[in-house]
Amino acid sequence: MSSSEAALPSLSTLVPHLSHSKPCFNSLNSMLHFKSDTDARRKRASGYVQSLICSRKLRNFRRAYSIQGIDGVSHGKTKISHLKSVSCKDQQAESVSSITADNGHGTIVAPKIREFEMVEPIGGSASNDNLASGGVINDTFGKISVDSTEDEAWNLLRESIVYYCGNPIGTIAANDPSSSSILNYDQVFVRDFIPSGIAFLLKGEYDIIRNFILHTLQLQVILSWEKTMDCHSPGQGLMPASFKVRTIPLDGDDSATEDVLDPDFGEAAIGRVAPVDSGLWWIILLRAYGKCSGDLSVQERVDVQTGIKMILKLCLADGFDMFPTLLVTDGSCMIDRRMGIHGHPLEIQALFYSALLCAREMLAPEDGSADLIRALNNRLVALSFHIREYYWIDMRKLNDIYRYKTEEYSYDAVNKFNIYPDQIPPWLVEWMPSKGGYLIGNLQPAHMDFRFFSLGNLWSIVSSLATMDQSHAILDLIEAKWPELVADMPFKICYPALEGQEWRIITGSDPKNTSWSYHNGGSWPTLLWQLTVACIKMNRPEIAEKAVKIAEKRISRDKWPEYYDTKQGRFIGKQARLFQTWSIAGYLVSKLLLANPDAANILVNREDSDLVNAFSCMLSANPRRKRDWKGLKQKFII
Fold first, then answer.
1. How far is 306 from 6, CA to CA, in rounded Å?
2. Which of 107, 220, 304, 431 has the smallest CB count inside 10 Å?
3. How many helices (H) and strands (E) does the chain have?
4. pLDDT for 139-172, tens place per residue?
5. CA 580, CA 174: separation in Å to the nearest integer?
6. pLDDT (tens digit, 9 = 90+) per residue, 216-225?
7. How many Cα neighbours within 13 Å face the side chain of 473?
8. DSSP 506
9. How far is residue 200's CA from residue 208's CA, in Å, rounded to a whole number?
10. pTM for this one?
11. What is d(CA 303, CA 255) in angstroms, rounded to the nearest whole number?
């Protein structure tokens, strides 16, 4: 047993014992087996060409924090020394064999994180002369002549690459030279990097994705319980929303510097919201890397396996909720501002389902994983049933809701969530096409959010959370409502926009999310790549091709904006950053996938036959049946 394996904590300390007493779920344990590509896993003896081994150590550095009293008056400054960042020095530092941390909920011993065997940066090694502050390349790769929109996009994407210890580690959110306010757009965001990573994968440039996966994992394992807000820490396993490469002087030697990774887990974000989607996207990218590169050694590493389990443990933990969907607050995903999506937003559920399938495919079979796999399989079945049955809406379902009876207190109620028919908005009655349908944005007791959220619906197709019929119906709706959802620039992030009093109440009068702007009905070019993957999966690529052609007419001329405003997407967003990296990468991924549709398989989750059988089991059991009190053999003494 290696030292890293010896340090691996028992899974019983990482994963709660989750089980179901319902007969249908008990039968699933034999029906659903752990799918593993064990036979396909093989170690690559050749390895990677090593140009630099970047040793790491934990470095304490002090920051001054203003301690505010409840009356808002500052009571002095306190130096906090426990906050740690990951650093890289020119000279070799000591390896950390194990790290012990206590977040107030028990001690976890993290396994030794092996030294990253860094490969030569894409396009050659980067000298210090090329590095700007924060590790961004100013002039790189010897620009090729720009004779097409694609060439320009590739040049811009490569200019956005961030380097850490001389190696590519991610791409900054935006590289807008006209903006005087940087905010956090010079950081590497996990969700923003996904299309960049996919573009590099499809181009055969794997190093940057491997480095990104391993370094963000390092931040998760070491730092997720070090970050606090008002003395409270997030759950172990949380992935950062973003990180920044900082170059700081070495202690005692002003002439030497080191690179430091400084992550943000939400404690510095606007609204202070933890990124629920970061870990889910990380798992999806990890699987895509293995399937595209053929390098399964990364996902087989002990520390990577532990990282997957920590994310799953965080997502599968028992709570108060009666539903299998993840309960989150507003702003915990791509829509990262207050937009009334708190509760069980579709986007999170689609990513959650996809991440569960990807994780099940990558987890190494071992005795200690039995409880985790059982909980994962049970959640997959319950989640798919819940979304397909209760989130789906088309003209027939809309008519059913219109005729709902309310205040049904019984176990066989039809209107389980006590939805009042008057909640059906007038716009939906006119907007819903006779052919087509979609998954609503959110579902909670006495509340259905009937807005169409693009990412959630598109990724439900990609992940097979939606059935085949539902997936085709979603694309039918997109075609039928093309003038509203695409118009002059694809793709509306949600439809329709909140307006008037509704906007004031739900957004808190957010000046950035005014009607038909930003997250409130704005048009986001980065959504092109999710649309393309969904269309290719359903063998309808012509829909994506049409959208890409519309974008090509102006996106380069408009300098690759972050988003567009107005109902038709005619104006560049009033606060949109130019040269937004995921707008650039989203376009490139779409072009690459349309040129090679088979490559979309690295992202697609095919419908699982065992899940289909389990789903049929639930339907045949009739969820509306009355409770069988005779089946309760346990006696209670009152």
1. 13
2. 107
3. 21, 21
4. 333 343 345 999 999 999 999 999 999 999 999 9
5. 4
6. 998 885 554 5
7. 20
8. H
9. 8
10. 0.78
11. 35
